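Q&A FORM
Asked by: J.P.
Topic: structure of LacI family DNA-binding transcriptional regulator

PROVIDED:
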Amino acid sequence: MMRGMGMTNIRSIAKLAGVSVSTVSRVLNQHPYVKEEKRRKVLEAVEQLNYIKNANAVHLSKGKTYSIGVVLPYLNLPYFGEILQGIAGEALKHGYHLQLFQTNYDKGAELDAFHRLQMKEVDGLILTSRSNSLDVLTPFMENANVVFCENVYGHSCKKIYIDHYQGIRNGLEHLYSKGHSRIGLCLHRMFGTNSEERIRGYYDSSEAAGNPVREEWIFNDCYHLEDGRDVVKAWEQLKEKPSALIVTSDQVSAGMVTEAGKRGIRIPGDLAILSFDNHPIADALNITSFEVPIRKVGEESFKLFLENTDPRPVILETKLFERGTV
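REPLIED BY: S.T.
REPLY: Here is the structure written out as tokens.
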């Protein structure tokens, strides 16, 4: 970077130093096999141009960093861990390495990833989940390779997503078939495209079936086992209780099942639990769960990143595994 003069590329340094682009690249990479005189000329040119080496400098001659940024809110949740494994596997096959941007849903941390993209420190970004509005992110996306793991309405962009709307509706239909009409919903958060799709599916299906919905039957900020335990405690205090809960995380469902057992609450006799993800913990605790192809989301998102065609959506479906909690 030339202060006050925009981006300086390797060719500018090579021209001033009177050497080849490859020689500049070797000097910047601290390659040992460069004649001392040429090394000195390159370093003098760098100083004269007031050049600041960044992570992109060593790749300017190729135009690629072979690095992709993955934006995710948390590393310790199985959902995002599975997506990351899918991305990492494909990246390894194609010679890319990952830069992880853990945001904790902090908007500033998320924007930092986009600034890194603008600085060409990465060749693209995969957003597993986001906190900023599209209006905020759109200016950063011009001519940029960005893949969303959600249904981005009204924007022509690369996107892969689970049909969460239909998934929730399918879950409710299954519970209706088992005789349930008072059904609650337990999810990660109330905002965000995927959560909003789940909530919309919940309300649309309940309204179409003529079934009641109570505000106190919707639980959010549920991510971990402990959150599931808290949901059961809150459910027990309700004057009018739902007979079933749709839970969007097997980790939370596992906490609910274990807490219910401690309190003598019969599952599914007193409370039915229909979960999502179908992680091994669901099988271990005999939890009825919809399989969400999370790892495939990661794999396909990387494949979308590699594509140079017009942006296209990839939509994945869920599959029910019936066990003992419904």
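FOLLOW-UP: Residues 1-8 have pLDDT under 50 and may be disordered.
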